[in-house]
Amino acid sequence: RPTVLKGVPKFWETVHDAARDVRDVELQILGGRCHTLICGAGALAPKVAEWFATACHVRDGEGSTKPVQFIYGYGSTEAGNLAVNRKILPHVKYKLLPVEGIDLGKDVGEFAVKTGEMMFGGYHQDDAKTKEAFDDEGYYKMGDIVQLTHGQDGAVYVDVIGRVKSSIKLGNGKWVMVESLEDMYREVPEVGQIFIHGDSAHDRIVAIVDRQAKTAPVTDVQLLAKLQMH
User: How far is it, in rounded angstroms, from Cα 124 to Cα 155?
Assistant: First the structure.
């Protein structure tokens, strides 16, 4: 019966689905004592983080309740911790780099950072890989395409919307952020898992959907309509 638990996004998405279905807001599924939940190593659907942070609570020894603390971290082995609950940490210097061939618009680009003593010095005996990892000003290129939002509190928030290397250019010239689409479509209740594929030989993407077994059955036409509306 842990009090602090750490996991990857897929783990928390599974816990979220199972606990929400039976209205387990005290997280008895995890033993009922967890007061701090930590997520990292990937992008997490916003609705999952919000549910843990706003709907869940834990009982103390005297029978009263307090909210569960949900910590969603973003960082890398090379650069250390960069953001907590989407808020960029004070020690992080950052900038957005353009992505070749993609018009991303304002406040969107490849995330590049400097983190002082937390930054690694380079890859062991691999000067070529090290040079590729940094820009001319010494910023480490995360490989993530992010969108920055400036909050009313003066903080800057970061959301990962895709990966530079996994973005797909279709035959009509349009670029697709596969991870962003998969995250968006997983918010449809009837979708359990989804895989999206596209290539430069075709103008459209295709998706393979593993249905969520615990939802009411829908026809293929009904599910397609929900995905198109989302």
Answer: 35
Q: Which of 156, 30, 15 is nearest to 85 (CA)?
A: 156
Residue 83's φ and ψ, nearest 5 degrees, are: -150, 150
Tens of pLDDT, residue by residue over 48-61, are 888 888 888 888 76
Q: Label the pairing between strands 140-150 and 191-197.
A: unpaired
Helix (H) or strand (E) holding 161: strand 156-163
Nearest residue to 5 via CA among 31, 43, 42, 44: 31
User: What DSSP assignment string belongs to 44-105?
Assistant: --HHHHHHHHHH-EEE-TTS-EEEPEEEEEEEETTTEEEEETTEEPTT-EEEEE--TT----
* Sequence-separated (6 or more) residues with CB below 8 Å from residue 6: 37, 38, 39, 40
Using the CB atoms, write b or e for 70-107: b if 16+ within 10 Å: bbbebbbebbbebbeebbbbeebebebeebeebebeee
Cross-strand partners of 150: 156
Q: What is the pLDDT of residues 80-138, one digit of tens each?
A: 889 988 899 999 999 998 887 666 678 888 899 999 888 888 888 888 988 888 999 99
3 state DSSP class of 26: coil
